[in-house]
Amino acid sequence: MxxxxxxxxxxxxxxxxxxxxxxxxxxxxxxDYHDALTKSILFFEGQxxxxxxxxxxxxxxxxxxxxxxxxxxVDLEGGxxxxxxxxxxxxxxxxxxxxxxxxxxxxxxxxxxxxxxxAEVAVRWATDYLLKTxxxxxxxxxxxxxxxxxxxxxxxxxxxxxxxxxxxxxxxRPGSEVAGETAAALAAASMVFRETxxxxxxxxxxxAKKAFNFADTYKxxxxxDPGLKAGVCPFYCDFDGYQDELLWGAAWLRRASEEDNxxxxxxxxxxxxxxxxNINEFGWDNKHAGLNVLISKEFLEGQVLSLESYKGSAxxxxxxxxxxxxxxxxxxxxxGLIYKPGGSNMxxxxxxxxxxxxxxxxxxxxxxxxxxxxxxxxxxTLISQAKKQVDYLLGDNPMNMSYMxxxxxxxxxxxxxRGSSLPSISIHxxxxxxxxxxxYYTSPDPNPNPHIGAVxxxxxxxDVYKDDRADFRTSEPTTYINAPLVGVLGYFVANPY
Length: 497
What we know:
The protein is mainly alpha-helical. The protein has helices at residues 11-20, 33-46, 90-107, 113-133, 147-151, 176-192, 198-217, 226-232, 243-257, 260-269, 288-302, 308-320, 346-366, 379-394, 418-421, 438-442, 472-475, 479-494, and strands at residues 88-89, 139-144, 166-170, 370-371, 376-377. It catalyses: Endohydrolysis of (1->4)-beta-D-glucosidic linkages in cellulose, lichenin and cereal beta-D-glucans.
């Protein structure tokens, strides 16, 4: 692992580095991206809900929530818990699925065959569940579990005895953001399985169209409904509106199906749905930067002039990530990590790194560059920016630690995760009730079950990480942190330097 030792730099060089807000690595990267990729995918096994398969590698986990949906007379077993809790939140779960699938679509051919298969399994575990959520006419199931009761307990998913409340959206209680993201997830995933399982790919495509039609026909934000708001807020409210998910879903359906009606939807609705708003965000709630990158591919390949503004917005976003540019810049920590206030910062690091690589690929294929005012930026610069973020995450940082559990020799030991922090059911088969886990929560001891591959929220804006289980903003892993990272690591396995 590359040591972080700015004190050994000459003063004039250190000053230059400080002015640029980026500390450059002091030695060539020696990271094992293959190992990191393996572990980043393995993480999803530890997040599984439902009956676990015989080949489950995260053996500290057991079956859980096998009767999910029974309260509503439906089968909602499966899917992923979003983070260190035991709730299945549909909005971030769908985004996680989209990003896992996008990573396979863009960079799957660069992954070692075994890891490509593992990534496909991770996608399918999610899409099998998402297909269940849209299988009943007139509604879409968007969540299982009462988050208030769940968050008041510290118990293993195998033991949970809190209400498995089922939430759904309907024509009278719409949820365009969840339905639109579900459409994007299923459409992207259909591309993953197109060559290996045509029947399943067709099923996913049909589901994507169904979810999108629902989202577009019954417009509205799911957290505007008082009943749903009580279940999804403050955890995964729709803070930024549902319009971007409508365009996002249409963009993925266009890419996956190549049908002109989805292109026409983008062309006809882009302005009214806020596509020209140059918002430099990308994550489970805000798709604008990712939307601009994805639609730019269509412009770069086909020169559809009506889509040129998307490339302009994507270019503008990329310029904010290049310190040498005169554009206004995204915030970096002194050690060089992308930083956005609000907690769970690594979600921004991994999702933005993915966009850097995807856009670099699109630019390279079309022999295009980005005009950042005082400089012209090409694919190599964007790839370099992504690599700095990944290498920081894996250990090239002021703490000299990896923020991925199990990678390297120093990594977080006390992550905010119930199943990881409590004794495994295989070792302690007796139930641990809701409040009985409190002693484990407050214990200074390392988690007994290392959640291999989990990437935590990460350090603060000062590059300091305290490894505190109680500080969920820094120590909690999430599926939507890891999902973009799978594709990013897939790229660097094949292109390590």
